[in-house]
Amino acid sequence: MSLTYLTGFNNEHESQALPNALPQGQFSPQQCSYGLYAEQFNSTAFTAPRAQNRRTWLYRIRPSALVGKFQPWPQSQWQTAPIRSQGVTPDPLRWDPLPEPTAPTHFIEGMQTVAANGDAATQVGVATHYYHANRSMEDEYFYNADGELLIVPQQNALLAHTEMGRLQVQPGEILVIPRGVKFQIKLVDGPIRGYVCENYGAPLQLPERGPVGANGYANDRDFLYPSAWFEEREGDFKLLCKFAGTLFQADIKHSPLDVVAWVGRSAPYKYDLSRFNAMNTVTYDHPDPSIFTVLTSPSDSEGTANLDFVIFPPRWMVAEHTFRPPWYHRNLMSEFMGLIEGVYDAKEKGFVPGGMSLHNCMTPHGPEADVFEKASNAELAPQRYQDTMAFMFESRYPFIPTDNALSSTALQSDYAHCWHNLPKLFNSTQR
Ligand SMILES: O=C(O)Cc1cc(O)ccc1O
Ligand SMILES: [Fe+2]
């Protein structure tokens, strides 16, 4: 399917699916063209500073207020912080890909929470989820009042139908859906799976570039927003939502994806991770992974993110007289990782595409024993890391894994063994 997109991160985009549907010179005319209703959508406070303010004006067939009464929708696998878990542990954790559902399952039904931190009610922290879907959402629509969704497909493309239009996203690309935007996820070429970071905090933004200058990392122009598109569809549908940690459903007699025109900065967007302009050392030592930050959700403490979304893309490694893989380390920040494709440099075995790992605050980790041995003795010719894409959801708040994730058959019982045969190399008589 060929979709058209608008380019530029956080621009005030505008788009209309019918000519002259978008009012000119004002947002709220006495009567909108085509008999549309105007609706303001704010995913930041009215009074948020201009640079952070995200709002969109929607011109729609019916206002969002036309919806039935919400009732709880029993769906137990999507959980919300604060999480009370029996199994908190400072041990490093790693999972194989989670088992696929056997029953027909759409994107919201197939969302399983792996870990969460902070408290959604105070707009602090994030949750990490794993999704599977083997069927498209058809008569079900969804929005999340608890946070923004960063979706990282790992298997097969998905098609998002949203209030602002349609976006197709494949493994190697990401999709961000602002808090509150109504959407459906459709299958394109078979069952889908991947990762989600639900961000309860400040919306994701591009990190500063500092002395790197005016270019590099993720470039604004590579972020793609949808063109206006609408459904004029009536029937017996369900609007699902998550609010204050509970999933709800309401009857709705029309498609809520009925926005004919829109203008503003709060809209879903996608980004192709292969566009990331990686910076790295051309001299020596392994820099901190913050050089690979694609998007960040700041917290109230400068430089100490609620969420950093970091990738490990294909790249040249040229550091001289250097141990090139990640060093052994312990970190204030908590690190949740996933692998979209290929092999990750610190872990050649056991961390597989579709798998996950969790190294919480101060949990020591680093290269597995075989990688240490190999990298300590490798000839340091320039080397190209190819066909690989790992990522990290990094947060200042420790991730509390859910009981479901801790009792999953996919949890590896022997992960820490990857370091257990690191030899003692110390020899006080040999420098
Ligand atoms: O632990 C990890 O594998 C992620 C990571 C990668 C890196 O290159 C440096 C630090 C870091 O935490
Ligand atoms: Fe790490």
TrEMBL record:
InterPro entries: HgmA_C, HgmA_N, Homogentis_dOase, RmlC-like_jellyroll, RmlC_Cupin_sf. Keywords: Dioxygenase, Iron, Metal-binding, Oxidoreductase, Phenylalanine catabolism, Tyrosine catabolism. GO terms for molecular function: homogentisate 1,2-dioxygenase activity; metal ion binding. It comes from the Bacteria. Pfam families: HgmA_C, HgmA_N. Its cofactor is Fe cation. SUPFAM superfamilies: RmlC-like cupins. The active site is at 286 (proton acceptor). The keyword Oxidoreductase applies. Homogentisate binds at residues 344, 365. Residues 274-424 form the Homogentisate 1,2-dioxygenase C-terminal domain. CDD domains: cupin_HGO_N. Residues 4-273 form the Homogentisate 1,2-dioxygenase N-terminal domain. It is an enzyme of class 1 (oxidoreductase). GO terms for biological process: L-phenylalanine catabolic process; L-tyrosine catabolic process. Fe cation binds at residues 329, 335, 365. One of its GO terms (cellular component) is cytoplasm. Gene3D superfamilies: Jelly Rolls. Its EC number is 1.13.11.5. Belongs to the homogentisate dioxygenase family. This is Homogentisate 1,2-dioxygenase. It comes from Paraferrimonas haliotis. The gene is hmgA.
